[in-house]
Amino acid sequence: MNKFKTFSILLSTIVILSGCGVSAPELGADSQNSSDKTNTAIKQQFSYEKYADVLKKYVDDKGLVDYQGLKADRQKLDEFAAAIGAVHPETYSSWSETEKLTFLINAYNALTLQLIINQDPIPASIRDIFNPWKGPKFPVVGKEISLDEIEHGIIRQKFDEPRIHVALVCAAISCPILLNEPYYPDQLDAQLDKQSKAFAESPQGFAIDRNNKEVSLSSIYKWYGQDWEGSYGVDSNKFTGKFSGNNSEKAVLNYISKYLPAEEKEYLQEGNYRVNYLDYDWSLNEQ
Q1: Predicted pLDDT of residue 68
Q2: 248 contacts 226 by C-beta, under 8 angstroms
Q3: Do 144 and 266 reside in the same domain of the chain?
Q4: Which of 125, 139, 221, 258 is the most exposed place for a label (fewest CB within 10 A)?
Q5: Quick one: 67 and 184 in the same domain?
Q6: Closest by alpha carbon to 84, among 39, 29, 150, 33?
Q7: Which domain does 244 fall in, by range?
Q8: Rounded distance, CA 245 to CA 242, Å?
Q9: How many domains does the chain have?
C-alpha cells in the first residue's frame, strides 16, 4: 500500500471517529420556557409523503441512487428538506421517542442525498466533498446543524438503539443499503430488524470463512462497536467460551447471530475463530 493511500485511509478513519465526541444540540422546546401548547398546530404529525416519492422514483431495490436524475428533478427533496427545518421545537418535543428517532433517521438520509446533489459535478465518493459530515450545515427543527451532529450529537447520545447504524446511509457502497421508502414510526422496529438481517446477509456486512477460521465484519462495527454493548453485551458468567473478540466484538456478533441461520449462529457462539474487518468501499452508491 503506498503512503498516500495509507494516509487517506487513516484520515478518513480519524474523521469518522472524531464524530463520536460531538456535543448534543437541543432540538426540542425548552421545558422551562414552553407554553405547553396542545393545539393542532403544535401536535401535528410530520409528513413523509414527498420523501417517499423521491425514494420510490430514484432509489432501486439494491439501495442504489440515480443521483443525476434526482439532481435534475430535486424539487420534492428540497421541499422535504425545508420541512425538516421548519418543524417547530414544540412540535418535535410533543412527539414520542419513536417519532423523534424516525424523523432524525429520515432527516439524516434525506440531507445526505441533498448534500450529494448539491455538488457539481456529482462526486465519485462522498469523501470527495470537503469535510462532508462536519462542514455543511442544514436546518433541522429551526437549528443549523451538521450530519455529524444529527448522528453523533443527537441520535447516538439520546437514543439507546444501535440498529441506527444499519439505517443511516453515508452514500457509500459499503454502507447498509438505502431503503426505497421512508422509515415510519409505526414500522420502525420492523424496518430496523429488516435492515439488520439484510446487512448481516450482505457481503459488505458479514462473512464467515470456516477454512481459515475467520469471521469478517463491516468496519462500521469496528468504529461503533461499543454501541452494541448495552443491548447485546455478552455476560461472561453465562457465555463463557462463546463468541470471539473483545467485548464490543462479542456484543456485535451476538446481535448479528439473531439474523443468521441456526448453523451459523452456533458457529459464532462456539468462538473458535478470529475477528477481522472488511475493507470499506467509499465509492458512491449510485446506479
Answers
A1: 98
A2: yes
A3: no
A4: 258
A5: yes
A6: 150
A7: 206-277
A8: 10
A9: 2
Same domain? 182 vs 83: yes
Residue 48 grid cell: 413523509
Nearest to 114 by CA among 76, 152, 168, 86: 76
pTM exceeds 0.90, yes or no: no
Asked, for residue 240, whether it belongs to a domain, the answer is yes
Q: What is the mean pLDDT of the chain?
A: 89
Separation CA 219–CA 175 (nearest Å): 10
pLDDT for position 148: 98
